[in-house]
Design goal:
By secondary structure, the protein is an alpha+beta fold. It has helices at about 15-25, 75-80, 140-145, and strands at about 30, 55-60, 60-70, 85-90, 95-100, 110-120, 120-130. A hairpin with a 2-residue loop joins strand 6 (about 110-120) and strand 7.
Length: about 150
Amino acid sequence: MLTQPNLGAFVTNPGVMYREGVAQGLLRYMKCRDCESAQTLARYACGRCGSTQLDWLDSDSTGTVYAVTTVTRAPSDEFRALVPYTLVLVDLREGSRVMGHGEPGLMIGDAVIASFAELKSKGLVLFCRTSERRGETGDTLGDACQSGVP
Ligand SMILES: [Zn+2]
């Protein structure tokens, strides 16, 4: 018979805290109280030491692009209007790695800051360059970075 692991204080999916933050315009990450390791993804236990003493903190939403890809085939109808769009993995300044949309033309190593958009009433993280290198793209998400109001 399968038994449920002891999840301590977690009574819900830990990802809920992340999604609620995005809905409020905050980029949240988890940090271990025991070893101070920032966590990538919402977790029930620390990926480094296994502790379940994890706290949610608010990131300052800045980081560096770790990886970039362009999506040319939407996974669902709601994303079809955005194709082609850019997805990025970003190493936040605090040490957590997150995925989000990115303005077109982002490159590995670019300094970025998160802004927040809404698509079909779901929160969406959009990373924009923090430097002067912003281009005029004529693209919906790129324009959102330009205006600062996605
Ligand atoms: Zn730890």
